[in-house]
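Input.
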Amino acid sequence: ACSTSKKARKEWFWRAVKPITRDQNLLHVERFIGWQVHLQGWDIKDDTLETVFSRERLKDYASFYDKRHPNAERRGRNSIFAALQVFTERALGLSTDRFRRLVNPKAQPRPRIDQRRTMAQWQAIGQEIDRRRRKTRYPSQKLSLERFWIFFHLMQASLLRINALLQARVDHLELEDKRYILLVPPENSKQTRRINDQWRRIPLPENLTQAIERYVGEIRPQIIGKRHIPYLFPVSKGRSHPVPRQFITQQLKDCDQSVHGVPRAQTTSFHMMRNTATVALIRKENAHGAYKASKALGHASTNTTRKHYADVHGSMLVRSDWQLSELIDKEE
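Output.
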Protein backbone atom coordinates (compact mmCIF):
# COMPACT_ATOMS: atom_id res chain seq x y z
CA ALA A 1 0.00 0.00 0.00
CA CYS A 2 1.09 3.53 -0.69
CA SER A 3 2.20 5.38 2.41
CA THR A 4 1.87 8.82 0.77
CA SER A 5 -1.35 10.46 1.90
CA LYS A 6 -3.32 12.73 -0.37
CA LYS A 7 -2.32 15.69 1.78
CA ALA A 8 1.36 14.81 1.59
CA ARG A 9 1.11 14.41 -2.18
CA LYS A 10 -0.51 17.82 -2.48
CA GLU A 11 2.15 19.40 -0.30
CA TRP A 12 4.93 17.89 -2.41
CA PHE A 13 3.22 19.02 -5.60
CA TRP A 14 2.83 22.64 -4.54
CA ARG A 15 6.30 22.78 -3.01
CA ALA A 16 8.21 21.24 -5.92
CA VAL A 17 6.10 21.85 -9.03
CA LYS A 18 4.19 25.09 -8.66
CA PRO A 19 7.24 27.42 -8.59
CA ILE A 20 8.45 26.06 -11.95
CA THR A 21 5.56 25.50 -14.32
CA ARG A 22 2.73 27.65 -15.63
CA ASP A 23 -0.90 27.33 -14.58
CA GLN A 24 -2.18 25.71 -17.77
CA ASN A 25 0.30 22.84 -17.35
CA LEU A 26 -0.49 22.01 -13.73
CA LEU A 27 -3.45 19.68 -14.36
CA HIS A 28 -1.52 17.20 -16.52
CA VAL A 29 1.52 17.34 -14.26
CA GLU A 30 -0.66 16.62 -11.22
CA ARG A 31 -2.26 13.66 -13.00
CA PHE A 32 1.19 12.27 -13.75
CA ILE A 33 2.09 12.50 -10.06
CA GLY A 34 -1.26 10.98 -9.07
CA TRP A 35 -0.59 8.02 -11.38
CA GLN A 36 2.64 7.33 -9.51
CA VAL A 37 1.02 7.58 -6.07
CA HIS A 38 -2.35 5.88 -6.52
CA LEU A 39 -1.81 3.40 -9.37
CA GLN A 40 1.86 2.52 -8.99
CA GLY A 41 1.87 2.77 -5.19
CA TRP A 42 5.10 4.74 -5.02
CA ASP A 43 5.95 6.88 -2.01
CA ILE A 44 7.15 10.18 -3.45
CA LYS A 45 7.10 12.40 -0.38
CA ASP A 46 10.90 12.26 -0.03
CA ASP A 47 11.67 11.96 -3.76
CA THR A 48 13.39 14.68 -5.75
CA LEU A 49 12.20 16.16 -9.03
CA GLU A 50 14.83 14.10 -10.88
CA THR A 51 13.33 10.89 -9.44
CA VAL A 52 9.65 11.69 -9.93
CA PHE A 53 10.21 12.92 -13.50
CA SER A 54 12.86 10.37 -14.42
CA ARG A 55 13.07 8.94 -17.92
CA GLU A 56 11.91 5.52 -16.75
CA ARG A 57 8.73 6.89 -15.13
CA LEU A 58 7.93 9.06 -18.14
CA LYS A 59 8.28 6.05 -20.43
CA ASP A 60 6.12 3.91 -18.14
CA TYR A 61 3.44 6.61 -18.00
CA ALA A 62 3.36 6.89 -21.79
CA SER A 63 3.00 3.11 -22.09
CA PHE A 64 0.25 3.09 -19.45
CA TYR A 65 -1.66 5.88 -21.21
CA ASP A 66 -1.51 4.18 -24.62
CA LYS A 67 -2.76 0.89 -23.18
CA ARG A 68 -5.58 2.51 -21.24
CA HIS A 69 -6.65 4.75 -24.12
CA PRO A 70 -5.90 2.75 -27.28
CA ASN A 71 -8.41 4.72 -29.36
CA ALA A 72 -7.76 8.14 -27.86
CA GLU A 73 -7.49 11.11 -30.19
CA ARG A 74 -3.94 12.07 -31.03
CA ARG A 75 -4.67 15.69 -30.20
CA GLY A 76 -5.57 14.82 -26.60
CA ARG A 77 -2.43 12.74 -26.11
CA ASN A 78 -0.27 15.48 -27.60
CA SER A 79 -1.65 18.12 -25.23
CA ILE A 80 -0.98 15.93 -22.19
CA PHE A 81 2.61 15.13 -23.06
CA ALA A 82 3.28 18.63 -24.35
CA ALA A 83 2.51 19.91 -20.85
CA LEU A 84 4.87 17.37 -19.33
CA GLN A 85 7.53 18.25 -21.89
CA VAL A 86 7.35 21.95 -20.96
CA PHE A 87 7.84 21.06 -17.32
CA THR A 88 10.70 18.60 -17.79
CA GLU A 89 12.51 21.06 -20.05
CA ARG A 90 12.26 23.81 -17.44
CA ALA A 91 12.97 21.68 -14.40
CA LEU A 92 15.50 19.17 -15.72
CA GLY A 93 16.71 20.58 -19.05
CA LEU A 94 15.36 17.62 -21.04
CA SER A 95 15.35 18.61 -24.73
CA THR A 96 12.21 18.40 -26.87
CA ASP A 97 13.56 15.69 -29.18
CA ARG A 98 14.79 13.62 -26.23
CA PHE A 99 11.38 13.81 -24.57
CA ARG A 100 9.59 12.87 -27.81
CA ARG A 101 11.74 9.76 -28.14
CA LEU A 102 10.93 8.79 -24.56
CA VAL A 103 7.14 8.93 -24.91
CA ASN A 104 7.12 7.80 -28.55
CA PRO A 105 9.96 5.40 -29.46
CA LYS A 106 9.12 5.67 -33.18
CA ALA A 107 9.48 9.44 -33.22
CA GLN A 108 12.21 10.86 -35.42
CA PRO A 109 14.14 14.03 -34.55
CA ARG A 110 12.59 17.04 -36.20
CA PRO A 111 14.80 18.73 -38.77
CA ARG A 112 16.02 22.14 -37.65
CA ILE A 113 14.35 24.85 -39.73
CA ASP A 114 16.13 28.13 -40.23
CA GLN A 115 13.54 30.83 -39.47
CA ARG A 116 16.05 33.57 -38.74
CA ARG A 117 15.83 36.95 -40.43
CA THR A 118 18.27 39.83 -40.49
CA MET A 119 17.27 43.35 -39.52
CA ALA A 120 17.13 44.29 -43.19
CA GLN A 121 14.80 41.37 -43.89
CA TRP A 122 12.51 42.41 -41.06
CA GLN A 123 12.40 45.89 -42.56
CA ALA A 124 11.42 44.36 -45.91
CA ILE A 125 8.53 42.53 -44.24
CA GLY A 126 7.38 45.80 -42.67
CA GLN A 127 7.47 47.48 -46.09
CA GLU A 128 5.36 44.66 -47.53
CA ILE A 129 2.73 45.16 -44.81
CA ASP A 130 2.71 48.89 -45.56
CA ARG A 131 2.31 48.21 -49.30
CA ARG A 132 -0.62 45.88 -48.71
CA ARG A 133 -2.50 48.24 -46.40
CA ARG A 134 -2.17 51.08 -48.90
CA LYS A 135 -3.11 48.97 -51.91
CA THR A 136 -6.23 47.15 -50.72
CA ARG A 137 -9.63 48.62 -51.56
CA TYR A 138 -11.73 46.43 -49.27
CA PRO A 139 -12.67 48.28 -46.04
CA SER A 140 -12.57 45.25 -43.73
CA GLN A 141 -9.25 44.07 -45.12
CA LYS A 142 -7.82 47.56 -44.84
CA LEU A 143 -8.77 47.80 -41.18
CA SER A 144 -7.20 44.40 -40.52
CA LEU A 145 -3.95 45.42 -42.24
CA GLU A 146 -3.88 48.76 -40.44
CA ARG A 147 -4.17 46.92 -37.15
CA PHE A 148 -1.46 44.45 -38.17
CA TRP A 149 0.86 47.25 -39.34
CA ILE A 150 0.84 49.03 -35.98
CA PHE A 151 1.08 45.68 -34.16
CA PHE A 152 4.18 44.78 -36.19
CA HIS A 153 5.94 48.04 -35.33
CA LEU A 154 5.04 47.83 -31.64
CA MET A 155 6.49 44.32 -31.57
CA GLN A 156 9.70 45.68 -33.05
CA ALA A 157 9.87 48.54 -30.58
CA SER A 158 8.83 46.81 -27.36
CA LEU A 159 10.58 43.38 -27.49
CA LEU A 160 7.47 41.95 -25.83
CA ARG A 161 6.19 38.45 -26.33
CA ILE A 162 3.27 38.27 -28.72
CA ASN A 163 0.76 37.26 -26.03
CA ALA A 164 1.79 40.15 -23.78
CA LEU A 165 1.19 42.69 -26.56
CA LEU A 166 -2.14 41.11 -27.51
CA GLN A 167 -3.28 41.54 -23.90
CA ALA A 168 -2.37 45.24 -23.89
CA ARG A 169 -5.23 47.68 -23.32
CA VAL A 170 -5.79 51.20 -24.52
CA ASP A 171 -5.32 52.64 -21.04
CA HIS A 172 -1.87 51.00 -20.91
CA LEU A 173 -0.60 53.72 -23.26
CA GLU A 174 0.66 56.94 -21.69
CA LEU A 175 1.99 59.96 -23.56
CA GLU A 176 5.14 61.47 -22.07
CA ASP A 177 7.41 64.02 -23.79
CA LYS A 178 6.11 63.37 -27.31
CA ARG A 179 6.47 59.60 -27.04
CA TYR A 180 4.17 56.88 -25.79
CA ILE A 181 4.98 54.61 -22.86
CA LEU A 182 3.50 51.11 -22.97
CA LEU A 183 2.71 49.76 -19.49
CA VAL A 184 2.95 45.99 -19.08
CA PRO A 185 1.30 44.50 -15.96
CA PRO A 186 3.22 41.80 -14.05
CA GLU A 187 0.59 39.14 -14.74
CA ASN A 188 1.38 39.38 -18.47
CA SER A 189 4.93 38.20 -17.85
CA LYS A 190 6.01 34.66 -18.61
CA GLN A 191 7.72 34.14 -15.28
CA THR A 192 5.78 32.62 -12.41
CA ARG A 193 8.05 34.52 -10.01
CA ARG A 194 7.20 38.14 -10.66
CA ILE A 195 9.88 40.79 -10.37
CA ASN A 196 8.79 42.97 -7.44
CA ASP A 197 5.21 42.86 -8.78
CA GLN A 198 5.94 46.05 -10.69
CA TRP A 199 4.55 47.18 -14.01
CA ARG A 200 7.14 47.39 -16.76
CA ARG A 201 7.42 50.67 -18.66
CA ILE A 202 8.34 50.24 -22.32
CA PRO A 203 9.15 53.55 -24.09
CA LEU A 204 8.13 53.60 -27.74
CA PRO A 205 9.97 55.62 -30.44
CA GLU A 206 8.82 59.14 -31.23
CA ASN A 207 8.36 58.30 -34.92
CA LEU A 208 5.48 56.01 -33.93
CA THR A 209 3.59 58.65 -31.94
CA GLN A 210 1.46 59.91 -34.82
CA ALA A 211 0.80 56.38 -36.08
CA ILE A 212 -0.38 55.28 -32.62
CA GLU A 213 -2.62 58.34 -32.27
CA ARG A 214 -4.13 57.65 -35.70
CA TYR A 215 -4.74 54.00 -34.87
CA VAL A 216 -6.30 54.69 -31.46
CA GLY A 217 -8.33 57.67 -32.67
CA GLU A 218 -9.44 56.54 -36.15
CA ILE A 219 -8.74 52.90 -36.99
CA ARG A 220 -9.61 51.17 -33.73
CA PRO A 221 -13.05 52.87 -33.33
CA GLN A 222 -13.98 51.55 -36.78
CA ILE A 223 -12.97 48.03 -35.76
CA ILE A 224 -14.93 47.91 -32.49
CA GLY A 225 -17.97 49.89 -33.67
CA LYS A 226 -20.44 50.28 -30.81
CA ARG A 227 -18.91 47.52 -28.71
CA HIS A 228 -16.96 48.28 -25.54
CA ILE A 229 -13.62 46.48 -25.85
CA PRO A 230 -10.67 47.54 -23.68
CA TYR A 231 -8.01 45.73 -25.69
CA LEU A 232 -5.64 47.69 -27.91
CA PHE A 233 -5.97 45.11 -30.70
CA PRO A 234 -9.59 43.92 -30.60
CA VAL A 235 -11.32 41.38 -32.83
CA SER A 236 -13.40 42.75 -35.68
CA LYS A 237 -16.52 40.78 -34.74
CA GLY A 238 -17.87 38.93 -31.75
CA ARG A 239 -17.25 39.38 -28.05
CA SER A 240 -14.72 41.41 -26.14
CA HIS A 241 -11.53 39.60 -27.03
CA PRO A 242 -8.16 40.58 -28.46
CA VAL A 243 -7.39 39.44 -31.98
CA PRO A 244 -6.37 35.73 -31.95
CA ARG A 245 -2.68 34.98 -31.93
CA GLN A 246 -3.11 32.53 -34.82
CA PHE A 247 -4.60 35.24 -37.02
CA ILE A 248 -1.70 37.63 -36.39
CA THR A 249 0.81 34.83 -36.98
CA GLN A 250 -0.77 33.88 -40.29
CA GLN A 251 -0.61 37.49 -41.48
CA LEU A 252 3.11 37.54 -40.71
CA LYS A 253 3.67 34.26 -42.52
CA ASP A 254 1.82 35.55 -45.60
CA CYS A 255 4.02 38.63 -45.81
CA ASP A 256 7.25 36.71 -45.13
CA GLN A 257 6.41 34.16 -47.79
CA SER A 258 5.59 36.91 -50.28
CA VAL A 259 8.81 38.84 -49.63
CA HIS A 260 11.36 36.03 -49.29
CA GLY A 261 9.72 33.25 -51.28
CA VAL A 262 10.30 30.59 -48.62
CA PRO A 263 8.05 27.54 -48.08
CA ARG A 264 5.28 27.98 -45.57
CA ALA A 265 7.03 25.72 -43.05
CA GLN A 266 10.13 27.95 -43.12
CA THR A 267 8.41 31.27 -42.57
CA THR A 268 9.52 33.25 -39.55
CA SER A 269 7.73 34.20 -36.34
CA PHE A 270 7.47 37.19 -34.02
CA HIS A 271 9.63 35.39 -31.49
CA MET A 272 12.46 35.36 -34.03
CA MET A 273 12.01 39.12 -34.40
CA ARG A 274 12.44 39.43 -30.65
CA ASN A 275 15.63 37.32 -30.79
CA THR A 276 17.16 39.28 -33.65
CA ALA A 277 16.42 42.67 -32.10
CA THR A 278 17.77 41.62 -28.70
CA VAL A 279 21.03 40.28 -30.09
CA ALA A 280 21.44 43.43 -32.19
CA LEU A 281 21.05 45.61 -29.12
CA ILE A 282 23.54 43.58 -27.07
CA ARG A 283 26.11 43.61 -29.85
CA LYS A 284 25.70 47.32 -30.40
CA GLU A 285 26.01 48.49 -26.80
CA ASN A 286 27.57 45.49 -25.03
CA ALA A 287 27.02 45.72 -21.24
CA HIS A 288 24.62 48.66 -21.29
CA GLY A 289 22.74 47.07 -24.18
CA ALA A 290 22.34 43.87 -22.18
CA TYR A 291 21.00 45.89 -19.25
CA LYS A 292 18.43 47.71 -21.39
CA ALA A 293 17.45 44.49 -23.16
CA SER A 294 16.94 42.69 -19.83
CA LYS A 295 14.57 45.46 -18.73
CA ALA A 296 12.54 45.30 -21.94
CA LEU A 297 12.44 41.49 -21.91
CA GLY A 298 11.39 41.35 -18.25
CA HIS A 299 14.38 39.28 -17.14
CA ALA A 300 15.42 39.31 -13.50
CA SER A 301 19.06 40.00 -14.39
CA THR A 302 21.39 40.55 -17.33
CA ASN A 303 22.80 37.06 -16.79
CA THR A 304 19.53 35.58 -18.04
CA THR A 305 19.61 37.84 -21.09
CA ARG A 306 23.19 37.01 -21.96
CA LYS A 307 22.61 33.30 -21.46
CA HIS A 308 19.83 33.15 -24.03
CA TYR A 309 20.73 35.91 -26.47
CA ALA A 310 24.38 36.96 -26.31
CA ASP A 311 25.75 34.43 -28.82
CA VAL A 312 22.60 33.49 -30.73
CA HIS A 313 22.47 33.81 -34.52
CA GLY A 314 25.42 36.22 -34.63
CA SER A 315 26.24 35.40 -38.22
CA MET A 316 22.76 36.40 -39.37
CA LEU A 317 22.88 39.93 -38.01
CA VAL A 318 23.67 42.84 -40.28
CA ARG A 319 24.15 46.50 -39.57
CA SER A 320 21.23 48.73 -40.38
CA ASP A 321 20.00 52.21 -39.67
CA TRP A 322 17.27 50.95 -37.33
CA GLN A 323 18.22 52.57 -34.03
CA LEU A 324 16.96 50.00 -31.58
CA SER A 325 18.70 51.75 -28.69
CA GLU A 326 16.24 54.63 -29.04
CA LEU A 327 13.38 52.26 -28.29
CA ILE A 328 14.52 51.18 -24.84
CA ASP A 329 14.32 53.12 -21.62
CA LYS A 330 17.65 54.79 -20.75
CA GLU A 331 17.22 54.99 -17.02
CA GLU A 332 20.09 53.54 -15.04
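Residues 123 and 322 are 9 Å apart (CA to CA).
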